[in-house]
Amino acid sequence: MKRIYQYGFGAIMGLALSVVGCKSDKDFLTEVPPTFYTVDNAFSTSAQIDQAVVAIYSQLRDLWANPTEQGWIFVLRGNGTDMFDVASIRRGSSFNNYGNINPDHTTFYNVYHVWYEIIAKANLAIYSAELEHIAWSSPEEKANVLAQARFFRAFAYLNLGELFGGVPIVTEITTKPKYDFSRTTRVETYQFAIDELLAVENDLPPTTSEGGRLVRGAAQHMLARAYLAQGTQLAADGDASAAQSAFNQSVANADKVINGGTFSLMKSRFGSRQDEEQGNVYWDLFQEDNVNYQDGNTECIWALQIDYASYRAEDSKSKLPYSRTYGPVFRDGAKDHLTGTNEDVGGRGISQIIPTLYTRDEIYADKWGDDMRNSDIVFRRNFIGNVATSPYFGQPVPWEVIYNGSNDANTNKANQSLCYPVSCKIATDRYTGLADGENKSNLFRDDYFIRLPETILLRAEAKQRLGDKAGAATDINLLRERAQCGYMVTASDVDDRFNLILDERARELVYEESRWNTLLRMGGTIAVDRIREYAFWPEAEATLTFDYNLWPIPNTVIDTNKDVPLAQNEGWQNR
């Protein structure tokens, strides 16, 4: 059932407030109206509270899929990290020129604000669920709706902690301006998320019949992530004992997901296109009708819901504009050999963000290249010339020609930014809706918020931080065996800068993970070192002359909180 995403709290409040419009002009102008809607009386049924929770699902879908193509969301998804940069035609949207990045940058405010927006919606649902006049069909129904709302509140604080560090914890509805919020520590922010998730873990069902709804494994996965983040910060703070305890809890919660019997890696062909000779099991994971657990995909823990019928009828945001926003522009970068917007060039790409050379090539160099995730059906590298005058017409165009076909170095660099391999996660050979006027910009499949391989990689990292490098290698090999890699890692590959973990995350979770969260959570100088090394454009190395491991608290937030000073994060003061 994908209709859970089509309606939001705004519609419900609109219906409630419309009652006022039924009064006579005299009644309406009365100074104390007989009907005054407040938080306490705006909700009358449990279904309305569930719809307030649905509004959060809807907002998270739009935040992740970015159907309106907002630039700050591309940053949230990884622009400016080691994995993603911008094409030459979008240098103005770069997020690696630190001459322009400071605490006044609107991206930081937008990200900070959106997580508090979700917290506010969760707080409203939590408060309203306890109103005496709300009738629930059963205690279990109430507990489940509350569990979803509290999960979202925990999820928001976990994201804030990973990106911004310690932040104010707000659990009450705020009905008047407040200027005295106080920051918690980063460890305390993580602890709040942990406490929330522990409180609701068992009120979420192991599975659901409705695609997209939260399940117990999502809470356990987030506990593994939150404990790992907390342990990393505790270790940085010098509390080795508490850090070890947190890492052990991370492993224990990941174990519940990995070994609990509900979720498992898909290791054989499945789903809507399993009988086609061209595919493989990894490719199957990203085909229409294959993403949800309810579709038989046992490694899907939580997925956002996309529905083409709803898109056509009433929900214009029910789409993944990935071919458009993430797709390459061969028609500009290799126009003498490749052009058009057909499936054979990845659809109608406009390249809002690009995979860096690290993401597309370096992680598959040498012994790492023999990998199902690097196969042409998954990460397409063979493009057949389709320009009749090209010497490569009807033949694969060599990358040396695509990348370096000009005598001008600047042109070649631009071409490298516009042309790159096409992941099966962002394009398809079978676009839905062409008969209805769609133009190969959008995918109409569901998409993952949490997939089991990330849980496995979280456990691998926790094991490494516990000193169990052999255990970390074993976990990484669970994914490498599924990907039929020619090289299996050993404990000696598990390096102290977490390069192996980060490289494997890039291979497995490209276009899936929130890379900024991962890099900043790791602390130290891991984020800035990798940005300097792998950013596509040279501005990063030239302008990133200071170290940081958190994003700055937006200056707008600091200035508005006039009654209590909010300290700025290290590295960002006076910038």
Task: Describe what this molecule looks like in 3D.
This protein is mainly alpha-helical and 575 residues long. The protein has a domain at 322-436. It has 24 helices and 6 strands. It has helices at residues 9-18, 25-29, 39-42, 46-65, 71-76, 106-129, 139-164, 186-200, 216-236, 240-259, 281-284, 308-313, 322-326, 330-333, 357-360, 399-404, 409-418, 452-465, 469-482, 499-509, 515-521, 526-534, 539-543, 555-560, and strands at residues 84-85, 300-304, 354-355, 379-380, 422-423, 447-451. The strands form 3 sheets. Strands 1-3 form a two-stranded antiparallel ribbon. A two-stranded antiparallel ribbon has the order 2-6. Helix 7 packs antiparallel against helix 8 (186-200). The two termini are 48 Å apart. 49% of the residues are buried. It holds the Pfam family SusD_RagB. One of its GO terms (cellular component) is cell outer membrane. This is Starch-binding associating with outer membrane.
Q: Report the end-to-end length measured between terminal Cα atoms.
A: 48 Å
Low-confidence stretches: 5-34
Which class of secondary structure composition applies to the elements?
mainly alpha
Helix fraction, binned, reads 40-55%
